[in-house]
């Protein structure tokens, strides 16, 4: 048996080669060896102000009073935000804050609970 990698989508060990593609018979995912090495290098890690790694669904605390652009509202220091979603862009966190609504925050202004 050859040393082909497991499927990156479903982790099946029954992958096979089809030309220059690798194919998974269980989930029908197709990929190349080059794309597999690029995705592992290109994955962005999100870290809070203390260097802890953040992931989707985490709960964080705001470490600084933040003015909400376009309103007179302020997100106070110590505000807890649950169930964050990480996104690409200038502001890395998409979340809902009680009393304010849906906003985006930067990871440098939060710490993980």
Automatic annotation (TrEMBL):
Q: Domain Protein YjdM C-terminal: where?
A: 47-112
**Domain Protein YjdM N-terminal, which positions?**
4-32
Look up the domain of life of the source: Bacteria
Which Gene3D superfamilies does the record match to this protein?
A: 2.20.25.10, SH3 Domains (2.30.30.40)
Entry's Pfam families? Answer: YjdM (PF03831), Zn_Ribbon_YjdM (PF08274)
Q: Which InterPro entries match?
A: YjdM, YjdM_C, YjdM_N
Q: Which family does it belong to?
A: Belongs to the YjdM family.
This chain belongs to the protein called Zinc ribbon domain-containing protein YjdM
Species assigned in the record: Virgibacillus byunsanensis
The top of its lineage is: Bacteria, Bacillati, Bacillota, Bacilli, Bacillales
């Amino acid at each position: 048996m050859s040393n082909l990698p497991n499927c990156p989508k479903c982790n099946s060990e029954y992958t096979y080669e089809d030309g220059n593609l690798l194919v998974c018979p269980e989930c029908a995912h197709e990929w190349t060896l080059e794309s597999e090495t690029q995705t592992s290098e290109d994955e962005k890690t999100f870290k809070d102000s203390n260097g802890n790694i953040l992931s989707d669904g985490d709960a964080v605390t705001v470490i600084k009073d933040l003015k909400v652009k376009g309103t007179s509202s302020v997100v106070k220091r110590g505000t807890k935000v649950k169930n964050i979603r990480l996104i690409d862009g200038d502001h890395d966190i998409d979340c809902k804050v009680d009393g304010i609504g849906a906003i985006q925050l930067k990871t440098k202004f939060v710490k993980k609970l």
